[in-house]
Amino acid sequence: MENSELPPRPPLFDFQGVSMIHYFTDNWENVQNFQARPDDILIATYPKAGTTWVSYILDLLYFGQTAPERQTSIPIYERVPFLECNFKMLTPGTELADKLTTSPRLIKTHLPVQFVPKSFWEQNCRVVYVARNAKDNLVSYFHFDKMNLVEPEPGDWNHFLQRFMDGKMVFGPWYDHVTNWWEKKQTNSKIHTCLHRITTPFMKT
User: Fold this and answer.
1) Which of 17, 25, 26, 104 is the most exposed place for a label (fewest CB within 10 A)?
2) pLDDT, averaged across the chain
3) Could you give phi then psi for residue 126, rounded to 5 degrees?
């Protein structure tokens, strides 16, 4: 049997002021030009804040009674495409979203608010933003990165903790992500928030 080497973990780099990896920027033009529809629902979260959990909930609420078979016949990443995702082994998130025939379309993203395609604002789409307590988010992110080879090397716990506090994470600092989305909510009634015990924003003083 041939030995096949796993691809190296992607390096973190600065992308328009936010730490990113190439899997989320390689398809950037198509992401930014994505055409939202007025009834789209965007599920926005910082990574490891409950994205899949909320995706399942909303999918069940909208389609659980009218199309229950989709729960077992269609994987969640096709029912709720990851907009900016561009892994070689999967269809890009923008293409999966374009192929959806359901109404509303459920689409997920980890993008900071300033990177969200402008069509979502132009179409006045509903957004569900999920925020998780920073300490819980940190622990989940650490264990996720230890097993997920498409993320940068996490290192040991102390190194990862320092990176998290410095904001050197894929999709940028937790603090900026949460507070910038919260500020956007103050001027946009279509943004609904779900908070997981946001009590300790210890990332800035």
Assistant:
1) 17
2) 91
3) -75, 145
Topology at the third CATH level for domain 17-196: Rossmann fold (3.40.50)
- Residue spans of the domains in the chain: they are 17-196
- The residue assigned the tokens 């973990």 is 9
Residue recorded with tokens 């691809």: 7
Tens of pLDDT along 150-204?
999 999 999 999 999 999 999 999 999 999 999 999 888 888 876 654 444 444 4
Say what the pLDDT of residue 193 is.
77
Token representation of residue 166: 């410095």
Q: Which of 77, 106, 104, 115 is nearest to 93 (CA)?
A: 77
Count CB-CB contacts under 10 A for residue 86.
21
Residues identified as active-site: 110
Which residue's entry shows tokens 């995706």?
55
